[in-house]
């Protein structure tokens, strides 16, 4: 994000742990072009935010690791200096939870820490931890989809009025007559600009934003809320056509109540068919979410799976640290070996943090 403050320009990059080094190079190149300058990052002040101990990039080198093929070019990461914030704001007041998280973050869990986590393991789903309320955080998309569909079935069994919304797709590059979009559209939402093909919604549904709508209002990718109203096009009182895409009013809790409207984004079709433009609500159901998608989120209550499906360094730490307090935490499954084994944390990131701290 680029922003002007007085006479100085800043470029902000959030969740830096998930930014690959290659992307940092792309940003450098784009800013040079934008400012028509040979200065690094086009002479713009670049601020990086995040925790290197969070999840690493899905693809590419970690932001502090320059690929061998890019040597001897300037090591962009080494241009930055560290300003380390030490006060925990998310879990402030819960010193026990902070101690557990700090130990887990650097791979130094002790028996007393494990005892605290073991006491949070339960299968009960009452009050704030019911399936209709508390978020479930899983390591894999498969478990997320299974839980979201199970909760949707739960509401259908209660005869809840549910609307099926289908995205409006069109081929940008040519005539779209008689095109079978099912054959040329990627099924992976990460390849469709984070907009789903179909969505089942209702008043009371728990959803998560999959796009940055208005950063100044806190309407960013990863924020969670409940639908409180569905607003149909042309002042209709209900869905008239299968292709109707409504606006919705969502209660985001501390971020307030906001109207979220459909947005349009483009992505590449399969089979070299061209570019598809999709118009759809930028949300998905969110009674459950993956750890990766929760990386910038905060919740009051969550049920977390810390079982054998954990597969990435730092995954358990990120999942647990989304919750404000131990009182808001339940653990569905706990595999102790995943938290205390040979790679309980990102050792490369830990070494880089130590290097940064040692710079005078």
UniProtKB/TrEMBL annotation:
<keyword id="KW-0067">ATP-binding</keyword>
<keyword id="KW-0233">DNA recombination</keyword>
<keyword id="KW-0347">Helicase</keyword>
<feature type="domain" description="DNA helicase Pif1-like DEAD-box helicase">
    <location>
        <begin position="2"/>
        <end position="111"/>
    </location>
</feature>
<keyword id="KW-0234">DNA repair</keyword>
<protein>
    <recommendedName>
        <fullName>ATP-dependent DNA helicase</fullName>
        <ecNumber>5.6.2.3</ecNumber>
    </recommendedName>
</protein>
<dbReference type="InterPro" id="IPR051055">
    <property type="entry name" value="PIF1_helicase"/>
</dbReference>
<keyword id="KW-0378">Hydrolase</keyword>
<keyword id="KW-0547">Nucleotide-binding</keyword>
<dbReference type="InterPro" id="IPR010285">
    <property type="entry name" value="DNA_helicase_pif1-like_DEAD"/>
</dbReference>
<dbReference type="Pfam" id="PF05970">
    <property type="entry name" value="PIF1"/>
</dbReference>
<keyword id="KW-0227">DNA damage</keyword>
<comment type="similarity">
    <text>Belongs to the helicase family.</text>
</comment>
<dbReference type="InterPro" id="IPR027417">
    <property type="entry name" value="P-loop_NTPase"/>
</dbReference>
